[in-house]
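Exercise 7 asks you to align residues with tokens for two separate proteins.
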Amino acid sequence: MALEAWLMDDSNEDQRLPHHPNPKELLTIDYLAELGVLYWKLNPDNYEHDSELGKIRDERGYDYMDMLDLCPEKVSNYEEKLKNFFTEHIHKDEEIRYCLAGSGYFDVRDKDDRWIRIWMKPGDLIVLPAGIYHRFTVDTGNYIKLMRLFVGEPVWTPYNRPQEEHPVRKEYIKSLTHKFGESIQAH
């Protein structure tokens, strides 16, 4: 099954719920690509020997990797960690995540500052561009195993919103402006 993404509703209910609007409207991978979000579907059962994953890592320079098992039984201060992950922020570098088991949501802002929910399931690999506002949460299954990839040593520094004057955010907005050939307002 392909990656699922949709515009979120405005509900303040539990962040782990899908937050589908009514009517439900799925977005395309092409729509995500216009925002700079990249996607591959891989075989999570073969990640240690997957030549396609190896090719992606080589082509994009992802030379560092670690694993994160995110669930109450394996992470101390689990609820606090989820709260931190769900705070809207940017990074100076790409965020690369490969779902090996379980499931969860990456939320990203579109060019109109609306939340898009991306449902990560086993085999989904996504790359969020540097400077895009985003956040993360598990879904109601309360478990996800992610491979985290980096160029060089890992940097996890989040810059919480607002960050409109951050050079990486400005560069991201500029890339969208160039892509669409129109001015995009910073929100």
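Second protein for Exercise 7:
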Amino acid sequence: MRGALIVVSGPSGAGKSTLIRAALAAVPELGYSVSATTREPREGEVNGRDYIFLSREEFERWIEAGKFLEWAEYSGNLYGTPEAKVEEFLADGRSVILEIELQGARLVREKRPDAEMVFVRAPSLEETRKRLEGRKTETGDAVETRMATAELEVAARSEFDYEVVNRDREQATQEMISLMKRIVESARQGARR
């Protein structure tokens, strides 16, 4: 029995990480694939838990070695999904969540058309801006870059199988947990056929 490959994408500030953490806590059959990145860790982030932090040179060596299911450049940094860990989860019959940006989500969909695609967004672009500025982790230029990217990402939301609009954290959390349970159960049912 193989689990489901679940891709969660959406603009920065949409609350993807918060919703994913809640789903992982509520659905024991789910695993999380930690992405690799060349960006600097934010305060409180731990290497190997939040991201695998690599230098650009290390990341490029991983690309050359074919270690990524997908990788992309986003806001000047490289991000990628190590394929070995994803396959390990799926082979063990566990479903796995990937939190990746739009370009990477499209690459996964190309390689793995069976992937379940989930788009998470704030209720408006104005709310996205407010959340990004409220983080106080980026410069004004970085916020503008992320906002331009967010507009493109929101325009592509029809490419996804499911959408969670994060208006209210509690409601969005329950919606995400319910969705993950349905996807996991569907994978289990499909494996029984």
